[in-house]
Give the backbone structure.
Amino acid sequence: MNEVVIYTDGSCEGNPGPGGYAAIVDEGGSRRELTGAEPQTTNNRMELMAVIKGLASLEAPSIVRVVTDSQYVAKGMKSWIHGWRRKGWKTASGAPVKNRDLWEELDRLASPHRMTWEWVRGHDGHPENERADTLAREAIRDVLDGS
């Protein structure tokens, strides 16, 4: 199986507000940068979109390590999602899971891969995390500038 590392970040100006995401996909020494933005969204949705777009770019089942500064994404995929599925996409308190559409898509895209989830502290000098942050913020600029 191919080994892949996906570095992700999402950003939002206002929450909700204009948001951007970035995924840096390192696949066998080949790197590609994927970005996108939405005019009205939340930070958590952009964090999820970054991983979704990174996984969607893979052409075959792989050994994938996702490196994210989002505890929401890391904890969600390592532990929370299992309970949400069992409870019909309800939280421990019985409320509907926020961003269910994206969680279900992420779960579907992750399923053919051997996944590990690594949390890194944001804005702490991790080169790929810093690059993903820059790309996500640039994507917001593109939306705000109408590009």
